[in-house]
Amino acid sequence: MHNLDSRIQAYLRAHALRMADHERNGPFLSAFDEVSDNPYRNYAVPDDGAKPSPDDVAALEAAFIRRRRKPRLEYIAAAAPEVEAALLARGFAVEERYPILTCLSGEVRDLPGIDVVEVRADADVVAAAEALSQAYGNDAPYPDPLRRLMEQGGALAIVRDGETVAGAGMATPQHEGVTEVAGIGVRENFRRRGMAGALTAFLARTAFARGATLAWLTPGSERAERVYERAGFRRASVQLHISKEVSFDL
């Protein structure tokens, strides 16, 4: 279990380093989206076994506040067990503890009957971004992060209903054989047809075909977890989301 936690934590840090704007503060590596203040696009990851001082946490907060971003972390709790207490002492609050589900090569369960395709054309990138925006209730689509994902070696997939892109998802660029299946989203009118599970299985199998040995994801609900389990994923660890409310008023 410790090795699995460390592998996923190393992946998270590598993913943060792919962001154009990233900064290290003591044992924390923070990544920032230069365009969006969406908290899920701006977060920090601690080093394994980190023991942050109050000054380390203050520097972390300052890095986010300078960019008018909410100080926030996403990390595998077991890989850095002393970090949470240090953050709570500085006024952070736990948002959620998400189960980590993993799948190894050979464990994927194909879910037949739904045609999933990998995106190649830019028009489909835009359509995928629009589908994900509607699926997650965002104000606007963000195709540029999807383009970067593909440029860096990740996979983007869509599922159609007729001419409409009903849903999309991605498998992120690998780090030492680890990939994250993320952003699985289906427009509300097309849900409960098995599309999310089919996207998950397709993306995991695609990543394994390209050399991945471990795929992981975080379900947003118990129902979503059951969907991912049908595709071959199983609970293996916990990801902590923790943040601090701040004011940017002058």
Could you describe the 3D structure shown?
The protein is of the alpha+beta class. The protein has two domains: 2-99 and 238-243, Aminopeptidase; 108-231, Aminopeptidase (3-Layer(aba) Sandwich). It has helices at residues 2-17, 54-66, 83-88, 122-136, 143-151, 195-209, 222-230; strands spanning 21-25, 28-32, 43-46, 72-76, 93-104, 116-118, 155-161, 164-171, 178-186, 214-217, 234-243. Strands 4-11-5-10-9-8-7-6 form an eight-stranded mixed sheet, with helices on both faces. A hairpin with a 6-residue loop joins strand 8 (164-171) and strand 9 (178-186). The protein starts with a helix and ends in a 7-residue tail after the last strand.
Topology:
Layout: H1 2-17, E1 21-25, E2 28-32, E3 43-46, H2 54-66, E4 72-76, H3 83-88, E5 93-104, E6 116-118, H4 122-136, H5 143-151, E7 155-161, E8 164-171, E9 178-186, H6 195-209, E10 214-217, H7 222-230, E11 234-243
Parallel strand pairs: 9-10
Antiparallel strand pairs: 1-2, 2-3, 4-11, 5-10, 5-11, 6-7, 7-8, 8-9
